[in-house]
Amino acid sequence: MRKRTFGRTGWQVSEIGYGMWGMGGWSGSDDGESAQALQLAVDLGCNFFDTAWGYGAGHSEKLLGKLVRANPGRSLFTATKIPPKNMQWPSRRGDALQNAFPAAHIREFVEKSLANLGLPSLHLIQFHVWEDDWAEDVQWQRAMDDLKREGLVEAVGVSINRWEPTNVIRTLRTGCVDAVQVIYNIFDQNPEDELFPVCRELNIGVIARVPFDEGTLTGTLTTASTWPAGDWRNGYFVAENLAASVEHAEQLRPHLPPGVSMPELALRFILSNPDVHTVIPGMRKAGHVRANLACSEAAPLLPATLDQLRLQRWDRFPTSWSQ
To answer: Which of 11, 118, 257, 320 has the most other CB atoms within 10 Å of its CB?
Structure first.
């Protein structure tokens, strides 16, 4: 597994990390299967794991804590997220910081996450939603400074709302944020326009999430796809989004190089960008772990292939179903 330097933290993180949302509450999750997949990832060289209190009200965090404690001799990087107090995903223009991340709430959920993990400290704590209008508010800045000074967290990050890659740039320029997590994939190339240049300038760690576009870039969706009641994807893949997603995946299919699957192409596209320090596919089965982590050892995509993938850019904007 190749490693990259995670911005100014200096951490050497696996370029393919592990996204743990799916095992925190998506339908079809099995804790035993999840634990086996997580351990396999560690054994294959993955060392960056991203979770959140919001993934099953701490359930995913508990799985990660067990993994870290079961591997005391390995350096595993733990990243989690503070949910907004108003439980509003995503945040909306005009939301007040006091309603989402008052100082007491920040501390409360860092302590809850540490209890779930069973660990004395976190490598990275992230705000799970964000508004750039909160950039200069000293409440969150002081709260994070206190947590760092007390040794409870090492670095601070922001998980950027879906399809809003510039909604953090003023915040980055405060110097109080060490990392960003942003949707970046073959379709969502917008972070390259403004966000990534600022991250390069300020030496900010970059986590690319949703590499498979919530499943579109696995190539397995059809316009008849459905999920069990209560599964998050039912609210995301509404009819208009599902049809458009399947259409874009089919337009991509002719550009797959011989012997390369669509998920592999999706990951290798992201890895071709040095601005990304780790990409965090969701993985709940051992087969997915093996296939995804193997992409780190694959040869770079040919320039002609990358040129074709650039043409697959799909600019989208937040809407009622894009939580």
So the answer is: 11
Using alpha carbons only, what angle is made at residue 188 by residues 61 and 289, rounded to the nearest 5 degrees? 40
Number of structural domains found in the chain: 1
Over residues 149-159, the pLDDT tens digits come to 999 999 999 99
User: d(Cα 310, Cα 205) in Å, to the nearest integer?
Assistant: 23
- Longest Cα–Cα distance in the chain: 54
- pLDDT tens column, 151-204: 999 999 999 999 999 999 999 999 999 999 999 999 999 999 999 999 999 999
Average pLDDT value over all residues in the chain: 95
For 305, the enclosing helix (H) or strand (E) is: helix 303-310
Closest CA to 55 of 139, 159, 151, 131: 159
The pair of three-digit structure tokens given for residue 178, joined into one six-digit string: 């060490």
Using CB atoms within 10 Å of the CB of residue 75, give its burial: 0 to 12 exposed, 13 to 18 middle, 19+ buried. Answer: exposed
Reference 56, options 144, 141, 116; nearest CA is 116
Query: What CA–CA distance (Å, rounded) separates 283 from 275?
Result: 23
Residue 23's nearest CA partner among 63, 65, 53, 76 is: 63
Instruction: Identify the pLDDT of residue 39.
Output: 97
Q: Cis bond leading into 90, ω under 30°?
A: yes
34 in a structural domain: yes
Whether 157 and 125 have beta carbons less than 8 Å apart is answered as yes
**Of the candidates 293, 275, 274, 296, the residue with the CA atom closest to the CA atom of residue 285:** 293
Q: What is the mean pLDDT of residues 296-307?
A: 95
In a domain, 242, yes or no: no
CATH assignment of the domain containing 142: 3.20.20.100
